[in-house]
């Protein structure tokens, strides 16, 4: 017997399900359908998106409502227009063989008069976003006095989006006797509160453990410098030729920027965010659904509720601020029993966040290595060869061109021909990746503090991996706080705050960390900066500490003098033949290893020669 029949679903509906390819119930359907079919309980279902929730509540509704009546009997509230349309379309498909079933989708950003017209014609199931539903109720255009069931779908998302009050108001228009079914992917305190406030002894079902993500998702993370994020992202995509992914950014601007940069580099990508008009958003979604774009770059809000089949990867280009959002993001892949990968590109400072998410999901994330340029080129080459192998030759269409093709290639041996074909793509990637560097940051020596989830640097002299600790001769006596000092550093060096690590503010001096690659830029930036008529000095704090017997921060009793700093070495750049000229680091320690014993006058004059101007003329004053 068809397992849906065993669950208590009638033949007409099961036939429609079979046509949709639903052979057996998903676990959530198996567990919740019998409970909901009883129709006598409030219900809380904790389940990820993509697990078959819509049918889990939709099938019982189709069994329980009286479709010979024409008034609303069930209202389904959900967070977005997308989801609203999806749910109403799904219900219509399940009800394909039933008579007189009327479902209306009610959502903002579309003509209200059309929706009102449909309501007037008579509906039993209203699927709505809270704002528009209230609007319609406010016009007295719908009668909720016969509502038997209220479904709150993606309740956590609705609360996140600030719909709490709207939901309260809508619920207050429905009869006391109605039953409330709440579905949520996560169970934050606010959702618990709603369940408590509006439900009586609800039956609770948890698919997996609370807040657990979909078991078919593999979670991976890459640790790189903030400045290497985009390069890493591209390498991952290039290493995954068949990717069909959603890339999450934190802001609309970031979303737009990444999409534009990808398009410029020849990728099939487009952006989805709230600054687009509804029409533009629909167009992008259509492109994505049709697979005419391979990468959808989206914000959390714009992509809520999206159900696109076969998403292979979710990429967290930026980790979300809210932990729950991670679950929602990753739930866009591995839908309907398929598997998928959720990737996060992070810097060392975000390791703690990964540990936190791991703990919440109860799942270990795999630290992945950014592939080398060579790996990517190889992967692309064999990807292309595989494609060549599997291509279907359209004999009829290509036949007229064959004589000319044979003529063009007739001279070439089989081996030459293969080499040339393979090189078409290979050369492009080879060119791009020929001088590529290793983007991985070594995290072996980083312990994440168990209590706060952040890299544990309780030992004062421990600098974050990938960062260099620098000394600067300004501090709190100069009326700097940490934010001021960060601004001062960023303005003077044109380095983004994201590349600056921990700032340790002292009295007359301070320490700050900067990504290793940018140390030279710091020296260069400060060579033209004065503060209150004082020359601003930068030194490598690591060297300073080693010299002063490992005491963090050097000495505060005045031993931080020129003679003690004159042996400090600056981190070497590239080939290591630097004359000290591109540093601008003075005070006697501004040379690389090989020139550290050069007389100071020589270094200074070298610096002046390089910069081509006298320091006194070129200083920026603060
Ligand atoms: P949902 O969680 O309701 O958004 O469903 C996620 C996806 O799974 C949708 O594309 C559904 O069409 C599909 N789906 C739901 N139930 C089943 C089932 N029993 N068998 C196969 N696919 C299903």
Automatic annotation (TrEMBL):
Ranges of compositional bias, category Basic and acidic residues: 540-549, 595-622
All residue ranges annotated as the DEAD-box RNA helicase Q domain in the record: 2-30
GO MF: ATP binding; hydrolase activity; RNA helicase activity; RNA strand annealing activity
Gene Ontology, cellular component aspect: cytosol; ribosome
Record's keyword terms, sorted: ATP-binding, Helicase, Hydrolase, Nucleotide-binding
Domain Helicase C-terminal: 232-378
UniProt key word ATP-binding: yes
One Pfam family in the UniProt entry: Helicase_C
Enzymatic class: hydrolase
InterPro entries xref list: DbpA/CsdA_RNA-bd_dom (IPR005580), DEAD/DEAH_box_helicase_dom (IPR011545), DEAD/DEAH_RhlB (IPR044742), DEAD_box_RNA_helicases (IPR050547), Helicase_ATP-bd (IPR014001), Helicase_C-like (IPR001650), Nucleotide-bd_a/b_plait_sf (IPR012677), P-loop_NTPase (IPR027417)
PROSITE patterns noted in UniProt: DEAD_ATP_HELICASE (PS00039), HELICASE_ATP_BIND_1 (PS51192), HELICASE_CTER (PS51194), Q_MOTIF (PS51195)
Amino-acid biosynthesis recorded as keyword: no
UniProt-listed CDD domains: DEADc, RRM_DbpA, SF2_C_DEAD
Family statement: Belongs to the DEAD box helicase family.
Protein name as it appears in the record: RNA helicase
Source organism of the structure: Albibacterium bauzanense
């Amino acid at each position: 017997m068809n397992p849906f029949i065993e669950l208590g679903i009638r033949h007409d509906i099961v036939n429609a399900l079979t046509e949709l390819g639903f052979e057996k119930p998903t676990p959530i359907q198996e567990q919740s359908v019998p409970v909901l079919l009883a129709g006598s309980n409030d219900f809380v279902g904790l389940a990820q998106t993509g697990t078959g929730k819509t049918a889990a509540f939709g099938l019982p509704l189709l069994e329980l409502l009286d479709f010979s009546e024409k008034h609303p009997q069930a209202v389904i509230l959900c967070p977005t227009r997308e989801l609203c349309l999806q749910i109403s379309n799904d219900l219509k498909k399940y009800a394909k063989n039933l008579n007189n079933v009327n479902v209306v989708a009610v959502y903002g950003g579309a003509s209200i008069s059309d929706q009102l017209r449909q309501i007037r014609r008579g509906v039993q199931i209203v699927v709505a976003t809270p704002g528009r539903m209230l609007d319609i109720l406010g016009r007295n255009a719908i009668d909720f006095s016969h509502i038997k069931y209220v479904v709150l779908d993606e309740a956590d998302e609705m609360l996140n989006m600030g719909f709490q009050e709207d939901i309260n108001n809508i619920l207050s228009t429905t009869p006391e006797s109605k039953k409330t079914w709440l579905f949520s992917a996560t169970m934050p305190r606010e959702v618990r509160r709603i369940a408590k406030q509006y439900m009586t002894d609800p039956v609770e079902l948890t698919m997996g453990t609370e807040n657990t993500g979909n078991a078919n998702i593999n979670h991976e993370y890459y640790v790189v410098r903030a400045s290497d994020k985009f390069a890493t992202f591209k390498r991952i995509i290039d290493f995954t030729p068949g990717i069909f992914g959603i890339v999450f950014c934190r802001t609309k601007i970031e979303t737009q920027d990444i999409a534009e940069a990808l398009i410029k580099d020849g990728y099939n990508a487009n952006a989805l965010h709230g600054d687009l008009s509804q029409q533009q958003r629909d167009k992008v979604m259509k492109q994505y659904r049709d697979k005419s774009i391979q990468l959808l770059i989206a914000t959390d809000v714009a992509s809520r509720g999206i159900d696109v089949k076969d998403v292979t990867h979710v990429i967290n280009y930026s980790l979300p601020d809210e932990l729950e959002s991670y679950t929602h993001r990753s739930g866009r892949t591995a839908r309907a029993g398929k598997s998928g990968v959720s990737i996060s590109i992070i810097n060392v400072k975000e390791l703690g966040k990964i540990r936190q998410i791991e703990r919440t999901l109860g799942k270990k994330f795999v630290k992945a290595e950014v592939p080398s340029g060579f790996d990517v080129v190889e992967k692309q080459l064999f990807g292309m060869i595989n494609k060549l192998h599997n291509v279907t030759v359209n004999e009829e269409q290509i036949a007229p061109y064959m004589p000319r093709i044979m003529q063009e290639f007739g001279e070439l041996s089989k081996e030459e021909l293969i080499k040339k074909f393979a090189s078409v793509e290979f050369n492009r990637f080879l060119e791009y990746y020929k001088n590529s560097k290793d983007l991985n940051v070594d995290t072996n020596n980083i312990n994440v503090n168990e209590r706060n989830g952040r890299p544990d640097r309780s030992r004062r002299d421990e600098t974050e991996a990938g960062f260099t600790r620098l000394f600067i001769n300004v501090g709190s006596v100069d009326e700097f706080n940490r934010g001021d000092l960060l601004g001062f550093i960023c303005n003077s060096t044109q380095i983004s705050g994201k590349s600056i690590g921990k700032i340790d503010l002292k009295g007359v001096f301070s320490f700050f960390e900067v990504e290793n690659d940018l140390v030279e830029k710091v020296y260069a930036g400060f060579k033209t900066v004065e503060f209150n008529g004082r020359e601003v000095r930068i030194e490598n704090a690591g060297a300073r500490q080693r010299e002063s017997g490992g005491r963090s921060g050097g000495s505060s009793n005045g031993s931080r003098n020129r003679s003690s700093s004159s042996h400090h070495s600056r981190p070497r750049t590239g080939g290591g033949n630097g004359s000290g000229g591109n540093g601008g680091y003075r005070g006697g320690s501004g040379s690389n290893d090989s020139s550290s014993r050069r007389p100071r006058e020589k270094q200074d004059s070298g610096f002046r020669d390089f910069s081509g101007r006298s320091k006194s003329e070129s200083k920026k004053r603060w």
